[in-house]
Amino acid sequence: MARSPQMTFDAIILGAGGAGLMAAAVAGQAGARVLLIDHADKPGKKILISGGGRCNFTNMGVEPQCYLSENPHFAKSALSRYTQWDFLALVEQYGIAWHEKTLGQLFCDGSARQIVAMLMEECHKGRVDTRLSTQIGDIRHGDGMYHVAGACAPQLVLATGGPSIPKMGATGKAYDIARQFGLDIVTPRPALVPFILGDEDASFKKISGVSFPSVARVNGVSFEEAALFTHRGLSGPAILQVSSYWSKGDTVALTILADAASKLLAAKRAMPRAHLKAALSDHLPTRLADALAQRIDLPTELGNVPDAELYRIGDMLSAMEFQPTGTEGYPKAEVTAGGISTAGLSSKTMEAQKAPGLYAIGEAVDVTGWLGGYNFQWAWSSGVAAGIAI
Ligand code: FDA
Fold first, then answer.
1. Which one, of 374, 297, 320, lies nearest residue 212 by Cα?
2. What predicted TM-score, i.e. pTM, was given to this entire model?
3. How large is the ipTM?
4. Residue 248 Cα distances to 196, 243, 244, 375, angstroms
5. What's the DSSP call for residue 64?
6. Closest ligand 1 atom, CA of 169?
7. What is the phi/psi pair of residue 48, to 5°?
8. Which of 43, 176, 348, 374 is the most buried if burial means most Cβ atoms within 10 Å?
């Protein structure tokens, strides 16, 4: 039986998420014949659900130090050559209204669908051939060509992201292909992910939904944002941020009440007949004050408590220690840390040194941003770096 001829392209891009769409658009507009493949029935599914449907598409404060990687210098080149301001200029060119929410985080006023539509239009301008609901299958390399899904090209871009949120079709396929071509993988782990607490913290699980301003600290890294108790443990932006720096066995220190000792001493002077719960309720949500009072179990009025004891309680509330038993894992992780090692990639083009013509971009690579638009900026910047090169 005669075999149908393979369609030949200049580049095949695997994964139509933020990174793959950007790389395809840039390469296509530069004249490359690009095939973009995804097993999902829609492009940019994570963009669509991001930022509560409004897509936190970048951050005004993007700096290389906002990214975790075994090589903290790797992201510098791509981030400096396609910056947050470049992406913002594209957003404005499409007339997409945006706003800064907090901490430099930029969101669409309308819908994340506008970002996907913009990227699809950019791909359309680059005559990108997009094939959705398409399985990648096995990949073969021979005669300088990568053979994938009935097509071939001298260049192959891995943009299939990481395994976080598998129910949305996320897979570790990029790692399998990278390994096939001799690249190393930095052990992937769930990041920007809630913590699970053990039985010793059961009283806090009962106040699920209570959030408070906090400073969370892990391994010398700290973030000042809101924290939230959940029915299984801890979440909220401050917690998600430090989760990326956490390993099993590490302690998380949380400021439940800043400057707590002086607040308790002032309460003792102002209302000596009051109990701890009343003093805490002046500064914290009532349910949280209640749970803390139960846990601290101070069986007398504040006026009877020695100052030294109030200092001790204050210090504890200023940096309360939790030892999570684990995280909620990939099903709830906003990103995957680790991934394709940057040691084998060019920071300028994202091309693999060991496998000419093979590129890796976006979340598949061992570059992980903070919460707040940093991960999409990495997707855009690394996508542009590869798009220019192919
Ligand atoms: P991404 O995962 O987006 O795309 C990979 C593509 O490859 C997908 O289209 C997938 O279908 C496809 N694919 C995977 N495996 C495949 C296979 N085996 N065969 C074929 N195709 C395959 N970041 C941020 O900066 N701001 C934000 O507001 C948010 N919000 C947010 C909310 C939620 C709920 C999540 C889960 C994540 C975020 N993020 C975020 C993180 C952000 O979504 C993420 O960093 C980027 O989407 C990564 O872009 P990539 O293109 O690298 O991968």
1. 320
2. 0.97
3. 0.99
4. 11, 10, 12, 24
5. G
6. 11
7. -60, -35
8. 374
